Amino acid sequence: MCGILIWQLILSALALTAEAVNLRPTPASKRNNGPPPPQFVQTQGGSFFVNGSQFQFVGTNAYWLHALNSDQDIDNTLASIAAANITVVRTWGFNDVETIPENGTWFQHISNGTITINNGTNGLQRLDKVMELAQKHGIYILLSLTNNWNPHPLDDPGTAGGTRLVTNDTRPRNTLSNDYGGMDLYVRQLGSSQHHDQFYTNDTIITAFKDYTTAIVSRYKDNPFVIGWELANDPRCGSSLPASPSCETRVVTRWHSDVAQHVNSQDPNHLVASGNQGFVCPDCPKLFQRPPPPPPVAPAPPQPSPAPGTRRRRTPGPLTRAKLLRERKAMWRKARKVQKRSGKPSGGVRIRGRWMASPAIRAEDIDVGSATDGSHGVDSEDILSISQVGFGSFQLFPDQNDYRLNPEDTTLPLFNQTLQIGLDWIRFQGETAALLGKPITLTGFGLVTSGNADAFVPFNSTAPFGSDQGTPPSQQPFGVTDAERDEAYRQWLQAGLAAGLQGMIQYQWGQGNLTAQEGTAVSPTPDESGVTPNQDETGLSPNDGYTSLGTGQGEFLDTMKAGAQEFGPDV
Ligand SMILES: *[C@@H]1O[C@H](CO)[C@@H](O)[C@H](O)[C@H]1NC(C)=O
Ligand SMILES: *[C@@H]1O[C@H](CO)[C@@H](O)[C@H](O)[C@H]1NC(C)=O
Ligand SMILES: *[C@@H]1O[C@H](CO)[C@@H](O)[C@H](O)[C@H]1NC(C)=O
Ligand SMILES: *[C@@H]1O[C@H](CO)[C@@H](O)[C@H](O)[C@H]1NC(C)=O
Ligand SMILES: *[C@@H]1O[C@H](CO)[C@@H](O)[C@H](O)[C@H]1NC(C)=O
Ligand SMILES: *[C@@H]1O[C@H](CO)[C@@H](O)[C@H](O)[C@H]1NC(C)=O
Ligand SMILES: *[C@@H]1O[C@H](CO)[C@@H](O)[C@H](O)[C@H]1NC(C)=O
Ligand SMILES: *[C@@H]1O[C@H](CO)[C@@H](O)[C@H](O)[C@H]1NC(C)=O
Ligand SMILES: *[C@@H]1O[C@H](CO)[C@@H](O)[C@H](O)[C@H]1NC(C)=O
Ligand SMILES: *[C@@H]1O[C@H](CO)[C@@H](O)[C@H](O)[C@H]1NC(C)=O
């Protein structure tokens, strides 16, 4: 057992003491009006607290909640989530449009320099309903304020007419999570150049976004069932609009600091989180001072031998590129030895649902990967060091990103490699957050199953990711089985608990029996003859490749319930 684990034990011992004597915890981040009332979610060290009790949770994502067609639908959805003992829902608190749509919800119209916020019955009053009904079911809401992804083509005729001519995508607006506006929409309408990072640097855009955050956070600042504000889903330098050459980690970090201060000044009651994917960059220049390291701990007891399939814990202390490289090379040597003995060929890695063959690598070729080299323009450690950022966040979508911290053990079956990449990533994030003394949550994790493969649309795309794509063409059937998904979720939940994560939010919830309405995210599905059925046909929640609806839903729910039980409320 290493120092970090002991530190975590000390923290949880402190937490227990605090609870036993009913001390009111002081928030980690400095609020401008002192600590918020105790019923608001706050932090002490690496934990969340509500009313003086520790709050650790399993959650789910349902970005489409405010786009449902009736209050009853929102109520039913939140009721079934609560019945699975899930206590946190992450959802979109934005819905930007360039053209006012014919049907469905919209919150903000940005066009030709003019910005209108819609607080009508098809506007923010939909979000009011989500908030009200969440509270009714005892569910906390993590609300994202914008999205990195909004891949509309520049010559998109808009959404009023429905079909996007360039992509010929006929799905109604708001079906996909990247179809709710976001950073690129602000840039398209307000930027002086068509670079994604204008969002972080252009004063006109920064002011527009701050005004939007003011509208949202001031609306819900007295609601204790907001767990916190997530500044953006997956902020980074690039999107469907490219990054400018000057975008680097400090640009994205500086924006976080500025907007987090603004949000905190409008609403001192709630925590602020980034929403980034957790990429780190040990050797990037920092803007913020890392908090002092945890106090020295007693000498470590003898180390128990690790369970088969688990990896050595990272040695404690600040993360450096040199250390990462040393560990990767050691792993590579170990994997190569095993591989030589087994005589199996070297494999590949699963990215965007596909196994990419990787050329045989030599020790001197090993470098830290894109998760740790700053190439996305994200340094989540520096962001978490911002005093107004109250808790850390990261994501885990092995079908869409490369999270490898270690060279893959190619002797393992492909599913097991994916599983292991997730376990390593979770452990790594827990250790990094422990060094900074703030809670960390996994705000989205998911695997695409073969049953969902046809519906899978990656975040930087508007079209399904066809099963015959990928270079080289797929050797494997696309997607994992339902049982593999459940096994991965089960092991990741366990790993998160062991790594000290304070919350884990699965992506994404699936709900049936919803009201369907033409031209909305829940539209009637055409039957086999292509004829659109009646308006009163019940609808399914949108699916971008990760829905929990389907034949395996029962087992999925059992997995989540078991996870929720373990994370569950303090007793
Ligand atoms: C926290 O305490 C307040 C005041 O006693 C109470 O109204 C509220 O329901 C409590 N919150 C939770 C989540 O227990
Ligand atoms: C889990 O949910 C069930 C059904 O809503 C409820 O009866 C039970 O008390 C919950 N368990 C916990 C630990 O919250
Ligand atoms: C955009 O705004 C400018 C200045 O207010 C105006 O002259 C122009 O006609 C507008 N263009 C469109 C397409 O509305
Ligand atoms: C909508 O905004 C207007 C103008 O700020 C305000 O007068 C009105 O009360 C708001 N209505 C709702 C329901 O928020
Ligand atoms: C979309 O459909 C139109 C009309 O059928 C066709 O002219 C156009 O080439 C299509 N665009 C793409 C990108 O497939
Ligand atoms: C931001 O965009 C506006 C509108 O295009 C432009 O006038 C302004 O110069 C830009 N500011 C910066 C700092 O790029
Ligand atoms: C997103 O997609 C566009 C268009 O295919 C591409 O040019 C861009 O590099 C992609 N951005 C990222 C961050 O993957
Ligand atoms: C792969 O993972 C599954 C599920 O955890 C496990 O049963 C199996 O033994 C693993 N295979 C190997 C070779 O480790
Ligand atoms: C819809 O409700 C019916 C009746 O309660 C239930 O049998 C069915 O499984 C539900 N469908 C979905 C997709 O949830
Ligand atoms: C809007 O809804 C109406 C009535 O349900 C429908 O006829 C129309 O096609 C929808 N518009 C779009 C753009 O989908």
Automatic annotation (TrEMBL):
GO molecular function: mannan endo-1,4-beta-mannosidase activity
Signal sequence extent: 1-20
Any matching Pfam family: GH5_mannosidase
Compositional bias annotation for Polar residues: 531-550
Keyword annotations of the record: Glycosidase, Hydrolase, Secreted, Signal
Top-tier EC class: hydrolase
Domain Glycoside hydrolase family residue range list: 39-287
Region Disordered, annotated ranges: 284-322, 517-554
EC id: 3.2.1.78
Reactions the enzyme catalyzes: Random hydrolysis of (1->4)-beta-D-mannosidic linkages in mannans, galactomannans and glucomannans
Cellular component annotations (GO), alphabetically ordered: extracellular region
GO biological process, any: mannan catabolic process
Subcellular location: Secreted
Family: Belongs to the glycosyl hydrolase 5 (cellulase A) family.
Protein name stated in the entry: mannan endo-1,4-beta-mannosidase
